[in-house]
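thread from #wetlab-drylab

HS: before we spend reagent money on co-crystallization trials with zinc ion, can we at least see a predicted complex? here's what I'd submit
DV: go for it
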Amino acid sequence: MRLIRLRRKIEKPRFRDELKLIPKWLVWTLAFLYVVAVVLAIVINLYQDGGQSIQPSQLRGNPALASLAMAGIVTGVAVVLSVWLMALGYVYRDAKRRDMNPVLWTLLCMLLSWPFFAIGFILYFQVREPLPYPCPRCSTLVGARFNFCPNCKCNLHPSCPNCKREVAETDKFCPYCAQDLTAKQEAGSLVARSTE
Ligand SMILES: [Zn+2]
Ligand SMILES: [Zn+2]
């Protein structure tokens, strides 16, 4: 569990990179729908105004203001909806690359959004699996819960040579018995060899 948490911390997700995960088609569809919605709202608004007042020239100042207000309302609704939909798109793609069930998580986030606002997303970010990472020896992508690299049999969960408890590659000393782990490479291969 400690290793899983460490892996997640190592990821250091950069916001810009994470944004790239949002499906492009979704962003373009939302942008297109937004333009359509603004145009429709303004046209309907103007049409209604025109219908109500028999002399449209009298109310020339008003429709422009009304159109602006209409566009503002549409923009506000569109921003909220778009952020929500793009967050769902992100969860789907992110769950997929982390070997979690993407449909289940997207649905969960979606359903929890109405009664509990963003709790589904918060839950997702708390429990999501760490990303696959390259094997330290052969740099094949390995799952965060793998014990050994499927390609080169490298021990991915090195243990302390003294107390045999699990340590992380970044540890200089064993967190349980203070064993010096700076000669860790040898220790790792020792453990790997003994399990062969
Ligand atoms: Zn490997
Ligand atoms: Zn130890």
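DV: The longest helix spans residues 61-97.
HS: ok that's useful, forwarding to the group
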